[in-house]
Amino acid sequence: MDPDQKPVAVSMGEPAGIGLELALVAWNNRRSLRLPPFYVRGDETLLAERAAAIGMKIRIESVSPDQAVRQFSKSLPVVQTGPALTDRPGEEQEGTAQSVVACIEGCVEDIRGGLASSLVTNPINKAALYRTGFSYPGHTEFLGALARKYWPDEPAEPVMMIAGPELLVVPVTIHIPIRDVPAVLTEDLIVKTAEITARDLADRFGYSNPRLALCGLNPHAGENGTIGTEDRDVIAPAVARLRAKGIAASGPHAADTLFHAPARKEYDCVLGMYHDQVLVPAKTIGFDDSVNVTLGLPFVRTSPDHGTAYGLAGAGTARIDSFAAALRMANVLANPEKL
Ligand SMILES: NC(=O)C1=CN([C@@H]2O[C@H](COP(=O)(O)OP(=O)(O)OC[C@H]3O[C@@H](n4cnc5c(N)ncnc54)[C@H](O)[C@@H]3O)[C@@H](O)[C@H]2O)C=CC1
Ligand SMILES: NCC(=O)COP(=O)(O)O
Questions:
Q1: What is the pLDDT of residues 110-129, one digit of tens each?
Q2: pTM reported for the whole predicted model
Q3: Integer Cα distance of 199 and 211 in angstroms
């Protein structure tokens, strides 16, 4: 065992979803899945109840983060966070949101304190958190705020990237209503998002001068301004600014012909102007093994690319691939010198 090895911190996510059983199944298959040591910030009782629900005999041990690596070979380490909860797979419960948020923040504090290498978040139910006053659209923006709190001297401009073996995509606008996209989509936002993407692909993912393909917003990228003007007046100038800075940006491209196999050879990453423009192709091509990774943070965060999947919770049948890929990617990004 590497005495300096730090565990990956996993937040429990929405208790009614599949996150708990992903952690259980991942630990049970840790060798065959080649997983790094990890611990879950969550509730020990809840994990034990979910293990019983899916018919899994497993040892779960409550630990502090510094004990997790040593414990990992014997039992699933849990860092108790919040009160004991009752497991109701697929059923939203009042009063769990505080624990969900505390687990995410606790993991970030662990990284800041040198106790964890990186963070893998399990899916949250966004609407359930909004109802309790959570003011961030998702993890991505919340983690940006936590980065500014815990690393006040470092820049934190979170950018979402969905990374699969065949396709990398970045949505420039994320969780906003589609009607708001044109107003939010500014030249500066596109340039900033592309710069962070290019920098992190080079520094953390080993691309030299990554090729970024920017989608248009309108059908046929606006058809020379006849089907909408944003492509011509906002996206094209942003691409020109990026190219002037030496970034290998191209576009605006018609999005409908950007994702078939020959087209995918022409770029390293696609920047889409809104969520579904790029998450639909990314999940269609790589739903099982893509990872959601936040660029632009002073620490490493990944997550599976899927959501809470209430319909599968408690059945023990949810696919583990994306969660396992998220754990492996977090460990590699956090330990570039060792791997
Ligand atoms: N990172 C995060 O926290 C994310 C959270 N969500 C949240 O998840 C909730 C549900 O969202 P949906 O759009 O229904 O997406 P979803 O990903 O939970 O489910 C979509 C479909 O994929 C299936 N699926 C999801 N994960 C699977 C797995 N591991 N194995 C096999 N099948 C799987 C589900 O059964 C369902 O048919 C929402 O509240 C949303 O906010 C969604 C995406 C990411
Ligand atoms: N559709 C992707 C998603 O919902 C993940 O968002 P985040 O919670 O990682 O910001």
A1: 999 999 999 999 999 999 99
A2: 0.97
A3: 11
